[in-house]
Amino acid sequence: MIVLGIETSCDETGVALYDSEKGLLADCLYSQIKIHAQYGGVIPELASRDHIRKTLPLIKEVVAKAGIQQSDIGGVAYTAGPGLVGALLVGAAIGRSLGMGWGVPTLGVHHMEGHLLAPMLEAQPPEFPFVALLVSGGHTQLVNVEGIGRYTLLGESLDDAAGEAFDKVGKMLGLPYPGGPHVAKLAQQGVAGKFNFPRPMTNRPGLDFSFSGLKTAVRTAIAEVSDPVSGLDDQQRADIALGFEQAVVATLAIKCARAMQQTGLRSLIIAGGVSANLKLREVLEETVAKSQGKLFYAQARFCTDNGAMIAYAGCQRLLVGQQDDLEIRAQPRWSLEALPAI
Ligand code: KG4
Ligand code: ZN
């Protein structure tokens, strides 16, 4: 079965074609970053309008790129949530309408399930069960994954998501939106040990996270060391970026080790935009090695939002006969645990 996947939950228009027999056939991505960068964050209305402009042309492009006919498409999967409601509605309306017009089963996919299953697109995919660390701009969650749709939430952020903290610290350091990749790049010039930021909630039991205090600690440090006239110098900015990145990575690693110990599982997958972070991958490789475990992640372009993960997740569910009725579904809030098992 060839499934068209459509992702429009935030500021990326992603489309892809996934074939249950041959794997990923083609994918196309359009990032709206330039539009939102001037405002320092995503403007929902501008995001929706741009998805309207880009989605259909990208679908035509991905069909051409895959070298298939539109009539070869056997199912449509679109991101139904969580995300920005207007942005979601664009993909949902287009996906549902194409499915109806083409007479093929159509399904609204959970964005975080898409992220969670993205490592399955790799040549050596993980096998169930595993622990998943989902780290994106909107979510930080540890999940016990027994199979598709068999998710138990082990812990999550009580306030800011890890990606959100990266973006806010990026802003404080005068870096462009989204800050995550820029903070990571700047951190490469930093000197370790100049700034030691707290590892929030690691001293108490449990698997929840909190990153808002860390963000405040960075703000306080910036205020303390900034020159009253010229502000931070380049080395100070890099040192702060490194101190912050180390604090986030160490915090995530401590909680991942704890989750693996608690569940007795040896496979850890990381997914979502922050899983593209090289320091995080490096430190987690060491973490899993200590318990003879294995770490899995998607290639960088499938860590951040993309259509391939939605096509893949949708395909798995459509293959077992799950599909939606004619409703155009957009659910800005949607729990992973509410998903049906397959
Ligand atoms: O999964 P994603 O593309 O969108 C959401 O579902 O939110 O994640 C985007 C987030 C942003 O906060 C971005 O700054 C962060 O992922 N990010 C990174 C890196 N690449 C993307 N954070 C740290 N290091 C990176 N290399
Ligand atoms: Zn995402």
Features:
10 helices, binds 5'-O-[(R)-(carboxyoxy)(hydroxy)phosphoryl]adenosine, 10 strands, binds zinc ion, single chain, five-stranded mixed beta sheet, 342 residues, alpha/beta
Structure characterization notes:
By secondary structure, this protein is of the alpha/beta class. It is about 40% helix and about 20% strand. It contains ten helices and ten strands. The protein has helices spanning about 35, 45-65, 85-100, 110-115, 160-170, 180-185, 210-225, 235-265, 280-290, 305-320; strands spanning about 1-5, 10-20, 25-30, 75-80, 105-110, 130-135, 140-145, 150-155, 265-270, 295. The protein has a five-stranded mixed beta sheet with strand order 3-2-1-4-5, sandwiched between helices. It has a five-stranded mixed beta sheet with strand order 8-7-6-9-10, sandwiched between helices. It binds 5'-O-[(R)-(carboxyoxy)(hydroxy)phosphoryl]adenosine and zinc ion (ZN). Zinc ion binds near residues 111, 115, 136, 272 and 305.
Report a brief summary of the structure.
The mean pLDDT is 97. The protein has helices spanning 33-37, 44-66, 85-102, 111-117, 162-172, 179-187, 212-225, 234-263, 278-290, 307-319, and strands spanning 2-7, 12-19, 23-31, 73-81, 106-110, 130-135, 140-147, 150-156, 267-271, 294-297.
